[in-house]
Amino acid sequence: MSTPQINGQRLLDSLQALGQIGALPGGGVNRLALTEADGQGRDWTVARMRELGLRVEVDAIGNIFGTLSGTQDLPPVMVGSHIDTVRTGGLYDGNYGVLAGLELVATLIDAGIQTRRPLTVAVFTNEEGARFQPDMMGSLVYVGGLPLADALATCDAEGVSVQSELQHIGYLGCVPVGAPQVDSYVELHIEQGPVLEQMDLQIGVVEGVQGISWTEFTVEGQSNHAGTTPMGMRHDAALVAAQVAVFARALSQRMGGRQLATVGALRLSPNLVNVIAQKAVFTVDLRNTDASALAQAERDLLAYANSVAQAEGVSIRTRTLARFDPVAFDPAVVDLVEQQAQALGCSYQRLPSGAGHDAQMLARVCPTAMFFVPSVGGLSHNVREHTEPADLQRGAQLLLQVVLALANRPS
Ligand code: HGY
Ligand code: MN
Ligand code: MN
């Protein structure tokens, strides 16, 4: 049986259509998890699943599954990703993995091909973790890594809970979570980094995901008059936040290797030009492919933050927002992706993922792997995120070939 060709234009059109939901005026997309826009994006995706005749299920944390039955009632081969975005998101992060999954299903239906195992396209809730932490929340609950009640009770910065938002957008499903039956999972994603483009490669065969550590720091000092308070009498929360941010960058440079450090969110109060900041709440995102180096970076950062807080006479407390050790994908599935990339004549190389993905959670319950297509300029979490149509189509074709190999294998 020759492998059918995906319909590239249909895939590109679906990416543009979904990208209209939550579209930002200057380009890009804002579909923060569980907002109205996310709800509309979900509705659009469910309607597409129904158009294809898939069995649609929504679980208790709002994950959506569209399943095409197989000739045998076996655990499904699953593909998918997420359709929630950061506030300044692009068309492809997450969306591409879901829509390429729907495209391969549509292609098989058009060709009258039914695989031995069922095929499921998954849309996982709140992968980004931008509004509700941790990231990969939906897939983490799905695999039993986070109690459902804890996830539902999680609130955003305004005190709004996951549960109330799922209810509001109509995706508080009833399918139980925690013990999924999945044969295997393959996630197709944009690289979101510069490696493939710089090396002029078409495919990244992903061997695993680096470790992630998200910490929220709350520093409390004393607000006072900017013009009358001598420098030696200040307890300036903004100063400590700035010192920690500078230290985080220096720490990653000192450690070298793959140590990354980011201060992405910072809120001062009262946040006024002539008032010494009473409070600073900020986040530090540390990542490393090496688990022990990541743990060392966390210790060094905390020790430094405590020392400068003490010197400034302010209080400091931390809250862990997300913490995941590095994950290695299933070698046999990684090998299969590589073999199929070779068969398709793709240029490729193996690499770790810098970004977190739902695949790192699915790896806890079934053989899992990922692969990437290039990101123009290595940009992502940026409204100018872009991947060339030829790369998008090639990735979807490779996904179809990998899925057929998994879904039709004898045992
Ligand atoms: O933060 C991440 O790596 C992912 O985009 N949630
Ligand atoms: Mn993503
Ligand atoms: Mn992302």
What structural keywords apply?
411 residues, alpha/beta, Aminopeptidase, Alpha-Beta Plaits, nine-stranded mixed β-sheet, five-stranded antiparallel β-sheet, 14 strands, 36% helix, binds (2S)-amino(hydroxy)ethanoic acid, binds manganese (II) ion
Give the arrangement of secondary structure elements.
Elements: H1 8-19, H2 36-51, E1 55-58, E2 64-68, E3 77-81, H3 95-110, E4 119-123, H4 137-142, H5 148-153, H6 162-169, E5 184-190, H7 195-198, E6 203-209, E7 211-220, H8 237-255, E8 260-262, E9 266-269, E10 279-288, H9 291-312, E11 315-324, E12 327-328, H10 331-343, E13 348-353, H11 359-362, E14 368-373, H12 389-408
Parallel strand pairs: 3-4, 3-5, 5-14, 6-13
Antiparallel strand pairs: 1-2, 2-4, 6-12, 6-14, 7-10, 7-11, 8-10, 9-10
Helix pairs in contact: 1-3, 3-12, 8-9, 10-12
The chain binds (2S)-amino(hydroxy)ethanoic acid and manganese (II) ion (2 copies).
The helix-strand sequence is: HHEEEHEHHHEHEEHEEEHEEHEHEH
Category by helix and strand content:
alpha/beta
Most strands sheet: 9 strands, mixed
As for the number of domains, it is: 2
